[in-house]
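Possible regression after last week's pipeline update?

I re-ran a chain I had predicted before the update to compare outputs. Posting the input and the new output here so someone can diff against the archived version. Not blocking, just want to make sure nothing changed silently.
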Amino acid sequence: MEPPGTAGAPGAAGRPWDEAKAFYDNLTPKKKPKSPKPENAITIAVSSRALFRMEEEQKIYNEQGVEAYVKYQLDHENEPFLPGAAFPFVKALEAVNTQLRELYPDSEELFDIVLMTNNHAQVGVRLINSINHYDLFIERFCMTGGNSPIGYLKAYHTNLYLSSDAEKVSGAIEEGIAAATIFSPSKDLEVSEKQLRVAFDGDAVLFSDESEQIVKAHENNPLAQGPLKGFLEALGKLQKKFYSKGLRMECPIRTYLVTARSAASSGARALKTLRSWGLETDEALFLAGAPKGPLLKKIRPHIFFDDQMFHVEGAKEMGTVAAHVPYGVAQKHKRPLQEKQPQNSK
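New output (post-update):
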């Protein structure tokens, strides 16, 4: 006997099975996209303390030592960490990747995020659980067990390294790797979930520090490149993929030059230098000594790079995630103060 209401209906016998299959397909986790090869991708290496907030763990390390720290991590490995300073930036990178995959399904020119941490492997379970909890697409982990990350950064063809450890960042810069020490803002400021916004200082960030040493320079003489020039170049490469599809105005990447220099004395040389490199920023702001914090609050970038802690602190106070680039003549006179860092928590 056939179930009521199905007698004589074409294909009725298979309908309950089709509905059940559809139901269980919806319960099955969606397959994540394949990670690009490191040599094709724009690799962003992020430390665990940059991606997540780990103040409590750091306090335990400082006061009770490494064994108590590891035990605490294991005891709490099913509790996800809270988002850290780099978290909105990473989410914005993933949003750009989503759009790139829609436009170029077979391309590997994407952001590839690597978690670079000094943690021992046994502590990694909590990090993995946290990444899965927030549905982040981070497939590559490097848990060095206390060893220096520099060699691994080179092996991954790293385009940018973000860490909360100023010493490791300085080491990366000295090895020619674009890097910055990232700081959490003093207050939360909502940022775009659809457009990646990156703001750069000029001197000793995009450009060399020569204009810090020689104030008056010839505008037709291009500046030498700074440590983050390559990262701006990588962003520009992805922007052009959207431009070629007629999406310049809808591009999910926007870049800013935010400098304390004046347009009259330094503006032409900075812009001509970018032009000589085949690069540009979407906006250029020459503040002539005015504070950067209020302008950054208006821009709401996911990250702002500067070589002077004075400007980093000003940005933080206004709610901007800021990153210090320890490069150039200014670092010879003053290095940022840093707290004792737990060996296994970067």
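Follow-up from reviewer: compared with the archived run. The first helix runs from residue 15 to 27. Marking as no regression found.
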